[in-house]
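Internal ticket - ligand job 529, 6-O-phosphono-beta-D-fructofuranose:
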Amino acid sequence: MKTMPPNSARATAWTALERHFAKTSGLHLRDLFAADPERASRFSLQVDDLFVDYSKHRITAETFTLLLALADAVGVQQRIHAMFSGTAINATENRAVLHTALRSPVNSPLVSGIETQVAEVHVELARMGQFVQQLHKGELLGSTGEPFTHVVNIGIGGSDLGPRLVVDALRNFQTDNIQVDFVANLDEQDLRHVLKNADPGSVLFIVTSKSFTTLETHANALAAREWLRANGCADTGKHFAAVSTNLKATGDFGIAPERVFRIWDWVGGRYSVWSVVGLPVAIHAGMDGFRQFLDGAHHMDRHFLETPPERNLPLILGMLDVWYNNFFGAETLAVVPYDERLRLLPTYLSQLVMESNGKGIDLENHPLDCKSSPIVWGSVGTNAQHAFFQLLHQGNRLIPVDFLVPWQGASGSGSHHKVVANCLAQGEALMLGRDNPAEPYRHFPGNRPSTTIAYPDLTPTVLGMLLALYEHRTFVQAQVWGIDAFDQWGVELGKQLAGTIIREMEDGMPGDRHDSSTAMLMRHYLRQR
Ligand code: F6P
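stdout (structure tokens):
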């Protein structure tokens, strides 16, 4: 499936790329590098602290021009402007998409018309800052009079993955001795594990849920409250704070309004780490650290909004994704950080990219006739080399890879060059390959594309830039496919059916509306429990 809906400029640009693909797809990167000594510098960019090398991609100068022509044909730049300006580009929910406002300086938004939202954001940030300060000073006390030394965020999806990643990634920026943990799973093993050795009197739970109706989060919050009660913390309200749009539900749960931090319906869950959803980050890295993280994202926002396409990093990387996804027929993108601190990045990106772009309907409700989101997966280098790299090098699928690597390693480490060397070697090996006709099992075909994203060190600012880069790159893909990247209706059916099955299990009887397989599995479960 390669073709796009036959409309206008987009169809013309798409067809030009198809013709170009037919002519050039057999070219080997080895030869492209040999023919052009300037290739590496031609196809790489420095944006603030990020250095991005995309020269190991199966493109020529003409491919680049044609990809940018496709971006232009779908109006990417107008759409970027529409997003930043607060147009309701989340069409199915009729909502603006303003995560960029969350990291905007208060007095100088990048576009006009969003001053109210930016001002509201800064009011909440100030409240959050006060709360963090009180917590760090030991002024907030639990029901037994102890200060909080352990914070547990209860949330799932975007209310978990972003703050969890950022706290883990900024492990070298901890400003206080407060331990920050995360509980997401409905499976009670998760909460139990986190609370195993916890001192109830010193635990503060942050219930993070945009809707405050999510099954998993609600169940974990109730279980946490029971655990507090069972462990002598009768005034459980003192042990809770919340982040939500649903102020009624947080009140019904018994969380005092001064402990509730607000988000807005124009913040998508998977784009929310920049809001008060980032409270665990601010507790861990301090408000200064959190603000630096926001600043990094803001730098990337400015770059995305203001830089011409041929030097616009998210736009270029998004169009390369389209090139592989829709022309080479690649199914997946592997993300391999050579940075232990980014071990959670692949999981975070799997929600960001696949919940955003895993759609089959365009903005006019027509079925897409091209593939949408790649499957995003990965793991840290060098571990991944000893797991799935065999397939990347010799398997018979094309899998573009994102390598991420810091030039500096753990402080005092004399061996970081070995990490960097492994990262560079993998990109080189994938690209060059090595012929061995005599021993085919030792033959490396090469011509396997990768991007290398390098940075001096993983500071809050760099991390903010990186995550915003991936957000905007995902946005660019969505514009080419003509989809709504900001809804997630695909998660609804399973939720509804689970609700029905839960009720029936509680009644001890499968209902008569199930298929025979599901009914059989329910009967097995009911017999075993
Ligand atoms: O999985 C669906 C989803 O709505 C995600 O988009 C969201 O991040 C997650 O559930 C959690 O939602 P909430 O923050 O409303 O609990």
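Auto-summary: The chain has 19 helices and eleven strands. The longest strand covers residues 203-208.
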